[in-house]
């Protein structure tokens, strides 16, 4: 999931290619539509549309065939505790319905239920729970609503759900017939808004021109409410002739907005006489800090809606604060619809970004005031203690790590605002709220340096982009300029790109006005992690070559997103020689199923794909008319069943699917290209083991082996003589329980817990049983069911430099992938075995490559 500002980035790059629907016509597209989901970012206008639709129906202007339209806000449903029948739940919300004695009337008349604001729900929709079908059966509210959505309850009623995108789960999508989206302002509508709001054309044009000069501001204007904020700030400043400090960043914009609210409060309470900026803020300091504390506390809890009790915890008297005027355009009271039993008012910030800005201001204020206690929960880093003398760079580094740990970008905008607060110019705008200005060039260099060299692995693309945005909030353009220089240079590919460069380059390529003809990930001189950060650039190219770049499942998700994006330009995609396996292919299939996908060529050679992955591909290609004309699945393990599934697709659609000529050839020319000879090291073998012709047996009594410090004393196991540091493949026949793996030479020989394969940080193993396998490393175990084509032969493939160790079940010329360990190996690895009956090391010669005309 993405933070909504990241989603706005994508929205700004694409234009809708779906059909526009009038809000009164969402159930009129097809007769079979029962449930509609309307998505849209915070402040985009979802609830306004819902209310307008209800008003038009009530005034008999639209939807004349609908007899009953009931609004069920998730916000209010979340406040109901105890058990209800569906009928008593409706009465709780609409007391007038108590006059209906027979609940069957809902089914006999055309009824629409509107579930507004799924993102505001405090309960989860669990479709695996036992649901109800009887309107008179009492249960909890979450079960009733889930039953309604699934169609178990009131299956003849129409259903309209609204939500922010981040709250929509895959499980919910399964029960939705049509998805619509409120997209906010397009570029033309943005300009119309400012011309309507600002009466002077020249002034409006100046404001539009300035906003266009800042990509981040222009993207945010996709949200109507942000246009209002921008217009408020620019009108106030430009009408006073204040051109010097015109905001170019989000932080600066929101600082000025807060200042304007303070000024308006002053004029409302004290008349129109002027007061200095500092005095204005000082007069409202207490209220602003309390509201900022509320914003911070609720952001930590990921809550957008709060109660009067929440306000009181921060010392806010709702009536006094709201009446004073300071909060009227920052906080708003959420009306409690139609509920006579509710006395509790609920509140929210007028937009999520205002909550995040105030939360960042509160955290910064606590730091600069040397009062860290209120934010210690946020600063906590597991068992790691907060530095005794916390510097500003330390604070921001902790905040960045918190944001990177968030899967849905919960703290992304908060962290951007927090970095913006570090600028002296923004601190001076809020001078009346801060005890002093904290800014020195050395600290700024440290902060910028930390953002540039953030070395954490497996950071999602959106989080990487956010690091780039944090630099922009600090007015640091060095990375962008360096990347632009790289793009302009004819010898750009020679330059080594840092992780920060890769994030910036991906952003610039992704949102370029031009579609790249070819994007070849291998031509960029960077690390493996750097290449992963570049993957989002596939969204702006027609041909993407991502061959052999050690891509992960997260990379598959990014590529799938590119295939799903509106007006997707991707026509050719090569993911060969990446260990995607079936799990990665299944993620990719989400993109292939999309009606936006226009992919023509897909190469997945040597990606570890088995029957399950081939079945997922067949299902995806069968789900819609496909543009695909070429699919390369060579050097994989489709098996007979997987190949048959895809062959049916090949016959029905004009698509050429490439397999190997025969599975045996792949076994001989694929992994076995890396076949190596391994031999038992007799000095390591436990005393109960004996060996002959590469076969090792177990005896009840000790055998006559000489004393040797390398010998395992407690475990019936041995290591081989060869230390491996490249790519290597070997096969083992096992009988009885066996543990097959690799170990460093430094593995203990005399301590049971430290010497057994897989039970320490110096070894990796697959424990083999007839019904299952156990993958073990450092005492962590993963259970793996045995494949249907189970055998007593195991194939092991080591890519030492790539950091992977893969195990395969070998049966009748077919490899079935069992498990892959991922990590970084620090020493040569020695094949090792623990034996209960016997194991045999199989010997293979490297295959002779066929001539080109034989392939």
What would your notes on this structure say?
With 855 residues, the protein is α/β, with parallel strands linked by helices. The protein has five domains: 5-181, 3-Layer(aba) Sandwich (Rossmann fold), CATH 3.40.50; 187-246; 282-453, no CATH class; 485-494 and 514-660, Ribonuclease Inhibitor (Leucine-rich repeat, LRR (right-handed beta-alpha superhelix), Alpha-Beta Horseshoe), CATH 3.80.10.10; 669-842, Sandwich (Jelly Rolls), CATH 2.60.120.920. 38% of the residues lie in helices and 16% in strands. The protein contains 32 helices and 29 strands. Strands 17-18-29-20-25-26-27 form a seven-stranded antiparallel β-sheet, with helices on one face. Helix 28 links the parallel strand 13 (572-574) and strand 14. Helix 12 (250-270) packs across helix 13 (277-283) and helix 19 packs antiparallel against helix 20 (412-421). The longest helix is centred in the first third of the chain and has 21 residues, at 250-270. The chain starts with a helix and ends in a 13-residue tail after the last strand.
